[in-house]
Design brief:
The protein is α+β, with helices and mostly antiparallel strands. It has one domain: Hypothetical Protein Pfu-838710-001 (Beta Barrel). 33% of the residues lie in helices and 37% in strands.
């Protein structure tokens, strides 16, 4: 019922390093092209329940989306809720864990993403009315590519600097391990290193604590 997102991140840092990855993708796959470019605001939430979120958002969801969100609410043991403003389009995003990964930054997660016929600010208000609180607000510029069957995004993130995300979507949990293998092979070919979950967790925690200093700015920090 739910797609499974298999995603591995690599911290690039500088624009020069992002340029090197663009060049490496073109050399690895001559058909690799920029698919889209957009600007995003991502607001992360904490403290609520999916059961209440499912009920409050139900009038704004399609029948299929209602079923998917309720299924996540019934089964998820850990989850991450966020709203996204993607070039003026509001989306509700929920990610739930598989295995021992975290819902916020794990490698394999069940994913719910639905376009909402609401202004972004009203969607935030709806989520807050379900008992959630803001955890942090993020801003980024994103470039999306398809390279050798893997979705690759190059993100200029407030706080993090340039970050690459390598993603494959699978329908069955048993295919997640193979997707990870294929992603890591591509990353090795491109000469990029995986951002380890422990370091990512430290970066995520630092940003969440200090997000007003970075949101909507060009500022970056370095956490080893």
């Amino acid at each position: 019922m739910h797609n499974i997102e298999v995603e591995i991140k690599s911290l690039l840092g500088s624009l020069e390093r992002a340029d090197e990855v663009r060049k490496a993708m073109q050399e690895a796959d001559p058909n690799c092209r920029l698919q889209s470019k957009n600007t995003q605001l991502n607001h992360y939430f904490k403290s609520g329940t999916l059961q209440k979120l499912s009920g409050i958002t139900s009038p704004h969801l399609s029948d299929d989306a209602k079923i998917k969100l309720k299924d996540l609410a019934d089964k998820a043991t850990e989850f991450s809720v966020r709203t996204r403003n993607k070039d003026g389009v509001a989306l509700l995003v929920v990610k739930a864990t598989i295995g021992d990964d975290t819902s916020a930054n794990g490698i394999s997660r069940r994913e719910f993403e639905e376009k909402m016929a609401l202004p972004f600010e009203e969607l935030d208000t709806l989520v807050l009315s379900a008992g959630f609180e803001y955890e942090a607000k993020w801003s980024r510029e994103r470039e999306e590519y398809l390279c050798k069957g893997t979705n690759v995004t190059l993100d200029k993130n407030a706080g993090y600097g340039w970050l690459a995300e390598f993603e494959r979507i699978v329908e069955d949990e048993k295919d997640a391990a193979f997707a990870q293998h294929e992603i890591r092979n591509l990353m090795q070919e491109l000469g990029v290193s995986e951002l380890k979950q422990e370091r990512l967790a430290r970066m995520f925690a630092h940003y969440n604590e200090h997000w007003p200093d970075y949101y909507g700015t060009e500022k970056i920090f370095v956490i080893e």
